[in-house]
Every structure is written in structure tokens, then in C-alpha cells.
Amino acid sequence: MTLRHKTLLIIGLIFAALVLLLSVLTRTLLLNSFDELQTQDTHANLQRALNSLAREVEAFESSTNDYAVWDDTLDFVQNGTPTYIEENLSSSTFASFQINYIVFANPDGQVVFSQGISDESEIPVPPDVLAYISQTPLLYQFASVDDRVSGFIVLPENVAIIASAPIRTSANTEPIGGALIWIRLLDTAEIARLAERTQLSIDLHAMNDAQLPSDFPNAIANLNNNPTFIQPLADNRSAGYTLLNDIEGNPSLILRVDTPRSIFQQGQQSTLFFVVVLVILGVAAVAAALILVERLVLARLAKFSSDVQRISQAGLSERVSVAGDDELAAVEAEVNKLLAKIETAQEELRAAKDAAEQSNRAKSIFLANMSHELRTPLNAIMGFLTIILMNAKLDSKDEYRAQRAYANSERLLNTINDILDISRIEAGRLQIVPMPISVRDTVESVRSQMEVLAEEKSLPIEAQVTENVPSMIETDGDALTKIITNLLSNGIKFTETGSVKLLVDSVDNRLIIKVTDTGIGIAPHMYDLIFESFRQVDESTTRPYGGIGLGLAIVQNLCKAMQGNVRVESELGRGSTFTVTLPFAQVKEIA
Ligand code: ADP
What pLDDT does residue 27 have? Predict the structure, then answer.
């Protein structure tokens, strides 16, 4: 993932998490507060409705009492004044006090007179209302002239306000002639009138009403423990409930006041507005942050990266472009300084390498010339020694001396040849000249040369060329001879007992040459070093084995020049196997 995508992802995720957190917090904190405010408002409205109802009851009771504390009324219940009803209980009286039923009862609860009104026409008071009154002594048994009873009652059809006052003299003295009872039914019209006066939506029901609206049962259940209960009604209204006692002190009515949930809805809208504004501001902030990060960091990092790529392709002479004076610019400047240092170091290295190569070439030329100068007289010496050994009549002592002189000259010649070879290789003058040769002949010739050496140590040499090897192949015969000779002579040199074996096989146009001995072996950490020029496992001056450390270097260079390779496997004290792999070309049969 690119830095740009990572930055975008991280900033985006942080922003989303923040918005989510703030939204949740807003909803829980703000909406809860608005909900609380809404509850308080509903509560206040419920209280207003209760106050209003209480005033209604109070006024109704006061009006009832006005009629009860009157000599005419006392006279009517005691003596049945015939004109009383006609003069005092007209339909306008009923209307102005909003009375539905009037009942005059004597102190024993017997109804002396009763009258109801409905739609401005007189009706009898329903028998169950009269029965209720006579069964409720509270309504007509007064302890004193100042006793009153008022409040709510539950009638079979309706709930109602009832007021009862003792009938007595206008001077508010005994005797108590009975009770004047007024009843105002709280029917739908009356509730609507109350609602209009209080500007509240009011509903009043008997608790045992069989047709209670569906939200009431839950409210009644909650009102068992609390004086009031508030709950949302549908989505947009909040309802407050409370129980009302009847005149006997039993909770028999339930009042509901419902008001629009405007505070809560306003809260919801404000919260939504807040979240939307938050999201817009957040998106703007993220965009601004991204633009800034892009301009100040990402774009410059991308430029820096492309500069570095350009330098790695075009070379160290190129430089990173430096812009501004901030930390990134400091890094760019430092990179340029570093590049300059590397460039200088590289030039110095190149100069040192050129010098080293030049002196190495001089060394090689010197070695080649020296070897040549040494070989010419040495060849003459060996030639004369051969003639002496062949012709002269030497005694056995001199013959032995001449033979030693010849053998040492031959060793010297081999060493000089090795030096000449390696200096040719290092001077880049090694040339591989492939031509058709017989591997079997080459192997046989080397084997017979080496046999002399091996016989001195009584070591058997085995040489085998498998049938896979074609009779003639195309390769450099001299190089092949040198490779096998060097490996075999090392095998013989570093082996005291056991044997030295040479196996030549061929797989897929590649010669596989294995030289295995049972000699002293080589420690694994020396595997690479022994192929370097003049490197030997034992580099002490007192080492028991001859040689100057060039044989394996020549083998490896020849193998490389022929597109092949050489590797060693060995175990200290048990012997070594050198394996050479050399690709060769098939000799084309001439038809
Ligand atoms: P030289 O034989 O002249 O020392 P070489 O390059 O042929 O040089 O070999 C380098 C060194 O590798 C030897 O000095 C010897 O320590 C080790 N070496 C080479 N061949 C063998 C072998 N067959 N067994 C054990 N050691 C070997």
C-alpha cells in the first residue's frame, strides 16, 4: 500500500471514528437532556390541568353552598314550599352553574326532591345516581354547618364532579335540614370545554372504564408506585398521567394530559443539524488535511523517490532537487552531500583500481618475461642433461646426480610453466582453442605421466572413462590436460596411503571429471581459499608438501574460460573429491 493510500485510510478512519463517537455522545447527552426537558414540560402541563380541575371543583362547591345556606332552601326541604323550585331552579340556573343533576336529601339520606337537565329540558335524575347518593352517608351526614363535601365520583355512565353542602339558615346556623347535592357530569363536551379553557388536551376516565384507550393500562401499572407518569404517545406527543381520588378517598379516576413533543422534536432536529454540520466540517477538515499533507509531504516524497530512482538509473553525478527549508529539504540536501561523497570515493576507488590493475599487468608482464628468460636456459640445461644421461659413460654416483639434476630441473620447469600460465590468465591473454580430441587418449597420457609419481609412493592410480563419453569431442586439449594433471598430481601429493581415482563421465554434452583421493583432506572453511593464487592450507615454511599454490587457481581459471566450474568436497583425514564440469561440443561426423 502506498504512503498516499495509507495516509488517506488512516485520516479517513480517524475521522469516521470521531464522527461516530460524537454522534453517539450527542444522541445520548443532548437527546437525553431534551427528553428530560420534555418530561418536565409535560409534568407542568399535568399540574396545570390538575389545578384547573381543582378550581372547577372548588367553584362548584362554593356555588352549591351559596344555595344551601339559605332560608328558602331550608324551608323547601322542611316544608316543601311549592314555589321554590319554580323560582329558583330554572333551566338557566342549571346552565349557568353547569349542573346536570340537583338532589335535595333529608338528613336520613332520603331524596326530598331531585331534578336533572339534558339539552335544556328537564329529565328525572337516573335511579342509579339517586341510589348512589342514598348509599353514601358522607354526602348527607354533616357534623356541623361548616361541613362540605366535594370532589369526583364515578357513575355507571360517566365520571362527575359532585358537591354537597348542609342546608341551613341564611345566618349559617342550625338546624341542618338536609343536603343540597349538585352533580356536573364530566362528559365529552365538558372535558372539551375544560381543554379549551386550559389550552391542554385533557382526557379523564374512570379507572374501571371498560373502554380505556390502549395507553392507559401501562400508565395505571406505573402509577401504582409514582404519583405521576410520563410516556411518549406515538412519535409526536408526550402524555402525563395521574390518579384522582373520589370523594371517599379511593383512587378511581385517571387523568391524562398530552402535549406535542415539540421540545424533544426540536432537540432531535438540533442534534441532526449538529451531526450534519459536524460531518460537513469533518469532511472539510479531512480534505484540508489531505491537501496539506499531499502538498507539504506526499508530493515531495514522491518527487524525492522519483529523484532517487533517476539517480540509481542515470548515475551518481545526478542530484536530488532541494525545495524549501524544512526537515525534508534538509534530508534532500544531506542525500546530495552523501552522493557527492560516494562519487568522490568511487573516483578514488576507480583510480586505485586502475593503479592496481596497471601494476598487476606490469607484474604479469614481468613474470611472463622472467619465465620465458628462465625457461630458455633451463631447457638447454635439461637438453644437455638428457644427452649426458644417454651418451656419457657415468659411474653410478654421477648417473644418480645427473638424474637428480634432471628431476629438479623438471620440477623447476613445471613451476615456471605454472607461473607463466597464471600470469597469462591474469593478463587476460588466456585463449581457449577448441579442436577435436580423444578424451581417452588425453586421460591415458596424463595417467602414464602421473604413474611415475604415484609409484614413488606405492600409490595405485585408477583412471576410468565411461562409455557415455564420445570417442572424440571438441574442446581445448591443452587445457583439459592441465586440469586433469593438476588435480591428479595434488591427489598423489596429499595422499600417503590408499589410492587416487580419476573418473570421466559425460552428461548432456558436459564432461564430469572426478578426482578422488584418500589423503589428508581439506577443512570446509578452506574450500574457497585454496582456489586463490598462491594460497595453501599449510602456509608455513616448514610444510612437508611442495608446490607454490598455483595449481587450483589455474584449474579454476581454465574451467571458467571453458564455461565450466570446479568444486571440492572433502573430509579432514579421509580424503577429497574435486569435481570439474566442462561443456563440450560434439564433433560433426564428416559424411
Ligand atoms: P599447491 O598444490 O602447489 O600447493 P594448489 O593450488 O594445487 O597448490 O593447491 C592449493 C592447496 O590446496 C594445497 O597447498 C593444499 O593445501 C590444498 N589441496 C589441493 N589439493 C588437495 C588434495 N587433493 N588434498 C588435500 N589438500 C589439497
Answer: 78
Ligand 1 center to residue 583 CA distance, Å? 25
Beta bridge partners of 46: none
Atom of ligand 1 nearest to the CA of 547: 3
Per-state percent for the chain, helix, strand, coil, to nearest 5: 55, 20, 25
Mutational test site, ligand 1, from 489, 530, 556, max ligand atoms within 8 Å of CB: 530
| pLDDT at 159 (0 to 100) | 94
Q: What pLDDT shows up at residue 230?
A: 93
The Cα 341–Cα 310 span in angstroms is 18
Q: Is the pLDDT of residue 436 over 80?
A: yes
The 3-class SS string of 409-478 reads HHHHHHHHHHHHHHHHHHCCCCCCCCEEECHHHHHHHHHHHHHHHHHHCCCCEEEEECCCCCCCEEECHH
How far apart, in whole angstroms, are the C-alpha atoms of residue 296 and residue 290?
10
Please report the atom of ligand 1 found closest to the CA of residue 550: 6
pLDDT score of 589 more than 80: no
Please spell the DSSP secondary structure of 31-64, one letter per residue.
IHHHHHHHHHHHHHHHHHHHHHHHHHHHHHHHHH
**pTM of the predicted structure, to 2 decimals:** 0.52
d(CA 240, CA 39): 8
Q: Is the CB of 126 under 6 A from ligand 1?
A: no
Task: Give the residues across from 102 on adjacent strands.
Answer: 115, 182
Q: What confidence tens digit (pLDDT) does each residue in 506-546 have?
A: 999 999 999 999 999 999 999 999 999 888 888 776 777 87
